[in-house]
Amino acid sequence: MKDYVITTDSNSDLLPEYIKEKCIGIIPHYYDLEGITYGDEIDLTPKEFYDKMRNGLMPTTMASNPEVIRRTFQNYVDQGLDVLHISFSSALSGGCSNVVTGAREICEENPGAKIIVIDTLNVSMGEGMVVMKAVSLKEEGKSIDETVNWLEEHKMDFCVQFTVDDLFHLHRGGRISKATAIVGSMINIKPILYVNEEGKLLSLSSSRGRKKSLTTIANNMVERMGKYKNSDDIICICHGDALEDANYLADHIRELLPGRTIIINTVSPSIGAHSGPGAIGLCFMGDNR
Q: In whole angstroms, how far apart are CA 286 and each of 81, 130, 221?
């Protein structure tokens, strides 16, 4: 059985130390600010990026580069490795399509090469949790096909709910009308959104006030966990430079589910460009997205 490597994209929001420890291959997604393209050889710290947004700069985003995809896959194939790539939702970016095309081309040019792409239909650390599960299965001795089969069977169990602090970022992304953004901001309405089974972002409900929105997504999580409620699966919190609120949410979760491991990380700029500073996401295993 050939060995295989696990790759993903920068939108998976995995912790840098985890990426290094587990030797995860990362294909970058890009963003542009003030005429400079970031995401590959040059990048901003999360604080720098979100401060620029707070100061009124609006970044644009770009999907993965086909040439970088080809180079990454070819490097692993040249080492005699199969590749399992875990991708950001195809419903929200062209990156998944780029990866599928690159994988097909490399396999056609290299007889015997095997590159499998999983469309997680998920975002941020919801996607990252799929990567972490793949790594766990690989470390248990599962083959690439066994790992793929498990992930495809269970990928709807990786759930994401989130809330944003600034409604105008949702308006700019076409998620809500300008009127809704204005009125909602005036009365301190915070939307609760989720990633559905098609990998799209949809509105679930709303709460009045920041703290209420955070406790709402935590309570929603517990309601949706089903058979995973008593498991030891990790819970992930991602944030747009809002660590204090992320810690507040984590503390509330510890009250609801004592003993669970919680990982906190920032939302990558190519996602944060759309969700804005202050966004908070909650990623967990559940029976119902």
A: 33, 13, 8
